[in-house]
Amino acid sequence: MDFAPSLMARIVLERFLQEQEQAIPSKTLINSMLRDPSQIPDGVLANQIYQCTVNDCCYGPLVDCIKHAIGHEHEVLLREMLLEKNLSFIAEDQLRAKGYDKTPDFILEVPVAVEGHIIHWIESKASFGDESSHQAYLQDQFWSYWNRFGPGLVIYWYGFIEELDCHRERGILLKDCFPTDIVTLRHSMAQR
């Protein structure tokens, strides 16, 4: 078998708990034990689970933590760029406090234009936009944002497959960096 160490640890832990409790363990319990193996009643298994999660370079709680930190770093970077451009916005945490469940990272209080397209929101993705992840994001996030807030921009900081940028006319633009050609209402009024 060719499984990632964290996946193998999950499978072994599930079986162990199933045999001990004579029932299928909850995902919450398994995830808790994977994050904190000291909760596992068998010391040898706890050590092996720990070794699997620490030595897995692609999956598991440690990698999830690193991905989360990198994602947060890029959101902070985007916030600084928005402030530098004097763009007024509402951040995701502010929107959640107002009761919104699915929200982009930033909603622009005054829409802007990028490459001739109106933008109401911006989502930061500290990853490469491949077909599989992009389709999942479209279904789970981007179209929901579009339905609630209008057209928006997704920044894949580590690039994306060009063919995925095919929803511009419908209102979802893809970029691999913060746009330099932002047109604001103030900017367009000054040109008159």
Could you characterize what this model shows?
The chain is of the alpha/beta class and 192 residues long. Helix content is 48%, strand content 17%. It is built from seven helices and six strands; from the N terminus they run H-H-H-H-E-H-E-E-H-E-E-E-H. It has helices at 5-21, 27-35, 43-54, 61-84, 92-97, 131-149, 185-190; strands at residues 89-91, 106-114, 117-125, 152-156, 172-175, 182-183. Strands 1, 2, 3, 4, 5 and 6 form a six-stranded mixed sheet that branches. Strand 3, helix 6 (131-149) and strand 4 (152-156) form a beta-alpha-beta unit. Helix 1 packs antiparallel against helix 3. The radius of gyration is 21 Å and the shape is elongated. The termini are far apart.
Topology as a string of helices (H) and strands (E): HHHHEHEEHEEEH
Count of DSSP H/I helices:
7
Tell how many strands the DSSP assignment holds. 6
Q: Gap between N and C termini, in Å?
A: 67 Å
**What level of helicity do the residues show?**
40-55%
Structural class: alpha/beta
Low-confidence stretches: none
Radius of gyration: 21 Å
| Content of β-strand | 15-25%
Mean pLDDT: 92
Shape: elongated
Largest sheet descriptor: 6 strands, mixed
